[in-house]
């Protein structure tokens, strides 16, 4: 992994238009094989959908705490995550003892019922806000379409001929998170983060930011590079599962958020992953396997139980 000082930009226009993506695939494997992060522009997601979901987020976070607490995160990972309730404990990246300085609303794929056979299945919890659910679902649908296109592009970039892995994304595991970061104190301790240093555990993260900034990406030398807002762009990064599928060729890179702006920060990450039943192993054509096969649902359960009270092993789910 080479040292870097900025985040690359990829123009998705050929992918969205259904045109030749040979050059784009080459740019993709370079960006995610060297940095693990990139801005994507001309991604085809309507700006009105983005604005609507940011408006919905601001309305939600302005609600009284008691109203938000009424839909607190459940064992199916849907609902409100209050500030000071989530701590990223990862000794490989940082010694973190303080909870993340953010609050969020979490929506996943909407299931009509809870299935004991499908981990995390179930309906979402919705606040009583006019247009809120509609804005979230419309945005999630658009991001799901884009996520499928990007997974296909990743396979092209890796020269993968066997496309059977795509079946795992027919009914994907999706997560839409409406995040609110209050401004951090000017004299905040070094280990107080909006989001502590971490890697994403899924396949792809597609992030929309407001104009405040605060996202930073770690280089191989341990330096932190800013990923400031870029008008019209999404920040897309690779997570641990796509790193494993690519046999390590695409990088899952540590990142963090420090809101030192003195302003409130809002962001909307969308996580695009395969169905929980999917087995994750290096794809054929990526070389001698460096990773053992794991079940995505079992992996998710261990990650969520470690990070959230709602997922403790003795809880439902």
Please give a handful of descriptors for the protein shown.
alpha+beta; Jelly Rolls; 7 helices; 8-stranded mixed beta sheet; disordered C terminus; 317 residues; single chain
Structural description of this entry:
The chain has 317 residues and is α+β, with helices and mostly antiparallel strands. It has a single domain (9-311), classed as B-lactam Antibiotic, Isopenicillin N Synthase, Chain (Jelly Rolls, Sandwich). Helices cover 26% and strands 20% of the residues. An 8-stranded mixed sheet has the order 1-2-10-7-12-5-4-3. A hairpin with a 5-residue loop joins strand 8 and strand 9. Helix 3 packs across helix 5. The longest helix has 26 residues, at 132-157. It is globular. It starts with 8 loop residues before the first strand and ends in a 10-residue tail after the last helix. Mean pLDDT is 92; it is low at 313-317.
Secondary-structure blueprint of this entry?
Elements: E1 9-11, H1 13-17, H2 22-34, E2 37-41, H3 47-61, H4 65-69, E3 79-81, E4 103-108, H5 132-157, E5 173-181, E6 195-198, E7 204-209, E8 215-218, E9 224-226, E10 234-238, H6 240-245, E11 255-257, E12 265-273, E13 279-280, E14 294-295, H7 296-307
Parallel strand pairs: 1-2
Antiparallel strand pairs: 2-10, 3-4, 4-5, 5-12, 6-11, 7-10, 7-12, 8-9, 8-11, 13-14
Helix pairs in contact: 2-5, 3-5
């Amino acid at each position: 992994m080479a040292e870097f000082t900025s985040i690359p930009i990829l123009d998705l226009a050929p992918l969205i238009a259904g045109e030749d993506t040979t050059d784009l695939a080459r740019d993709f494997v370079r960006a995610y094989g060297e940095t693990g992060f990139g801005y994507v522009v001309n991604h085809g997601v309507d700006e009105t959908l983005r604005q609507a979901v940011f408006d919905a987020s601001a309305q939600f976070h302005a609600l009284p705490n008691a109203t938000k607490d009424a839909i607190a995160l459940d064992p199916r990972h849907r609902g409100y995550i209050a500030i000071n309730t989530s701590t990223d404990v990862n000794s490989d990246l940082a010694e973190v003892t303080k909870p993340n300085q953010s609050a969020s609303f979490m929506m996943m794929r909407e299931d009509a019922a809870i299935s004991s056979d499908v981990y995390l299945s179930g309906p979402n919890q919705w606040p009583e806000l006019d247009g809120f659910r509609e804005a979230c679902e419309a945005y999630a649908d658009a991001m799901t379409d884009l996520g499928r296109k990007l997974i296909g592009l990743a396979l092209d970039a890796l020269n993968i001929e066997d496309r059977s892995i795509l079946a795992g994304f027919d009914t994907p595991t999706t997560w839409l998170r409406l995040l609110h970061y209050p401004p951090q104190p000017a004299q905040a301790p070094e280990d107080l983060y909006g989001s502590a240093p971490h890697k994403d555990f899924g396949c792809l993260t597609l992030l929309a930011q407001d104009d405040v900034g605060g996202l930073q990406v770690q280089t191989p030398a341990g330096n932190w590079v800013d990923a400031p807002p870029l008008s019209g762009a999404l920040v897309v990064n690779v997570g641990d599962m796509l790193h494993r599928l690519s046999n390590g060729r695409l990088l899952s890179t540590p990142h963090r958020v420090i809101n030192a702006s003195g302003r409130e920060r809002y962001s909307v990450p969308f996580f695009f992953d395969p169905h929980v039943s999917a087995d994750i192993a290096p794809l054929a054509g990526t070389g001698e396997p460096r990773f053992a096969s794991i079940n995505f649902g079992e992996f998710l359960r261990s990650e969520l139980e470690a990070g959230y009270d709602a997922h403790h092993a003795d809880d439902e789910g």
